[in-house]
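P.,

For your records, the input lines for the assembly:
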Amino acid sequence: MNAAELIALRSGRYVPLFGLGVGRPELARALGIAQRTFGTKADARALEHASVFLTHPALGADALSLLADAVTERAAPTWAATLTLGLAGAVGASDALRAQVAHAFAGIPALATEVSLALDVGGGDLGAWREHYQRLRVLDASAPPMRAASVARHWFDFVLARRWHGLDELRAMRAHGGLDASSSWLAASADWIAGEEKARSEMTDVAQTALEPIQQLPRLVQTTAREMVELLSHPWTVRWEHLRCAAARDHGAASIRAWLHAAAEERFFEDTPGESVGGHAEFGELGPEPSRAGRAASEARQLAGDFLLDWFVHEREARAAVDDWARLALRIYHRLRGAAMLEVALRGAREDGFPLGDATSSEAPR
Amino acid sequence: MKPFDLAVVTLQEAITGWNRGALPGLVSRAAVLFDEAGRGVVPAVVGGAVARGLAGDVEGARRRLLDAITLAPDSAGAYVALGVFALRDPDPLTRASEAAWALTAARNLAPGVACIERMLAQALTSAGEFMAALQSARYALTLDPDDEEARLWSALLRLYFGGDLSAATVLIEGAEEAEGRGRSAAQWLGAAAGQHARGEFLEGRRALRRAVAPMKIGHPVESPMVDGARRWYRELRGFGPGVPMTGDRWLRDVGGAQSDYVRTRAALTAFREQMAADPSRAKVERVSPREVDVAVGALEARTRRAMLEWGARLILRGFAEAYLPMVAYLEPPPIDALAAMDLVVCDG
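Structure tokens returned:
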């Protein structure tokens, strides 16, 4: 990128992806940007520049909405939308930018899963873990079941809310098999934070497998590898911070529900021979509802949001450390998902006759 | 006799013959007499409000008491009366904050009055402020060691908020003693709490039966109180005997062997062992077994404290919800509370 282009980019005087329509030249330009971003000769700030191209300061994601309409009407190939969404993940876009791009593609059935994951798996940038968790819960309960969303929800449960059943579920899902590479990587990362020694090599293997088909985008492989080294550099430190957060949770609150549950199963007076009068219950049947005090005690937590209370523990430094780790882990997760989408898009482009040369080339395909 | 004195005597007469309410004719007459005693005179306004409240017009009484507070914000009587009516509400938990506010103001204006401290303990317990409630109950006992009501609340708070099982005996013995002093059968609800905590389930049920015995089954006014007491006792049984995290209760209270508490503790212990096996790595990663020990200790202490807090929210607030309406129904406002409202006749 030359100085003039850089100035245009910084001042918002640039044409965003698909800003000139969805014709063949624009498809070629999008492919070129993706390839040059991850090419060996790319500028050090290429990832940032590519993320800028996704939207426009004045138009937002309007151009992408037009692309989505064109894809729905079969006036443009699906791989163009896949390429753009994949690029948003692969460049490590923020939650807000990724959501903006994903929203534009919400109407494309072929991308429904990826759009949902791009929208809902996040929350670290704006401290909105709880809102994302809530959406993941809804997504997890949807039919047909979305295993990738299920993995993300259980990962949130264990890593951010320090609930051990989340880890159990992730292990069960991994043992069952059939997870895509990025979900498998995310599940392995939960094992890593729980102190599983083998998890590191498993994460590396999964990432290598996921990135192998896109060797023509070497910068993506390098960036992901560098971030993974950062992510996995201090296993005991991260584990300790995670355990500190787990210890700081309000474990006593779990008991209130157990007590109320036990109370709901109690029979009143009738369970002991001789306690009832005249062989018949002395009092009328008591409804199952708890007392006002019981209801208030259990509802207070629900109103505040259980996840929020489990995440927002008073060990502030430990929480911040785990949040930072989670933010980085999710960025890598989206990079891996993006890589898979880019691979699909590049394959589609090749089938449509776009010559995809070496990414080291500085020329865009025509 | 002065009109105000006549009104006070009439009010006292009306509540002396209390039978699930004041004598209607007398309490109405007391209200009229208080009105005649002087509009704008604070004790007369308070007396008029109390008489109307006891006659059933609680909202009118509350409005008059708030007017009296506006008229004379430095007089404790109106605050006391406001607190009394908030605690005598059929749903005392809703009015608990108002009662606590009014009685705190009354205590500040008239410190060292046992009945205010005792009622403040009830209000604070209903509001979920257990530590402050315990302090008030204990102070009330210091001021009047024979106050069985203060002893009841102090023992309840010690048992279910402080985790002191020895307080159960006080609850059991206190009910017998209180009945001997002419208090209503509702006192036996406290004994039920104590006996259940000691694992004396049969005696606990009997105590509950004694507590609700004056109520008629199926009576539209009385059955909500009976059901309230039953509901509280049912939750007491769900809570179980003893205090949280002691003896056999421990595993059940923390949610079982697969609970987050147990697994977090196990993970911390395993992590500590790993550190001990590889101290050089622990040093590089800036983690130490000592910190883990501290975390384990804090986890246990905090969890126990939290369980007592949640248990108190369930059992103590539930007790207030069941007990206070029964007492309000079966007993008149205590005479020392009337005195704290300045509704007394000064001889000579």
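Two observations worth noting. Chain A touches chain B through 50 residues (CB under 8 Å). Confidence is low (pLDDT under 50) at residues 274-280, 359-366 of chain A.

Regards
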